[in-house]
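Problem: given the chain below (191 residues), write out its structure.
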Amino acid sequence: MLHIFISASDDQIVPGMTGKPVPGYQAKIVDESFNEVPDGQSGFLAVKGPTGCRYLNDARQKNYVKNGWNLTGDIYTKTSAGYFKYESRADDMIISSGYNIAAPEVENALLLHKAVAEVAVVGTADIERGMVVTAYVVLRTEYSPSEDLRKELQDHVKSKIAPYKYPRLLNFVESLPKTTTGKLQRFRLKN
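Solution.
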């Protein structure tokens, strides 16, 4: 959209929150059917204002613009006070047994462990759960992969965030796929 549409400044800043819609913009959180979701529930960020996105002769127009609202491709929640909180990119959201799990949240929890140098988290298809949280972990040089360390890392995540978000599959790898500029390419890890 090439514009700041949610922000906060000075005494309006709340740690962990993106902010509130700036003057001239409206924002709401919607589900897949474009129904507004209750405060505190995660969903797709929809924004309306004097600027927006337009894809001429491009199928993406149907994905990013609905009913005059721009869909940013981000998952957000909104508080009852009207603050918006970023959760993840929509394509980084893992839906497991009906729970929405943001890959970056699991990554951040794993990075708090002393053995972890780098990590990427994706969803892997699962017959029972729909998807399961799958972590690809690069260890610091002084650590070696083992079943004990795998369980320790899984338990570590359970102690840092909601236990159901832990990586049921945890793979030790030498490196993670990245662009030439160093940006993680999660899509290359998805099955």
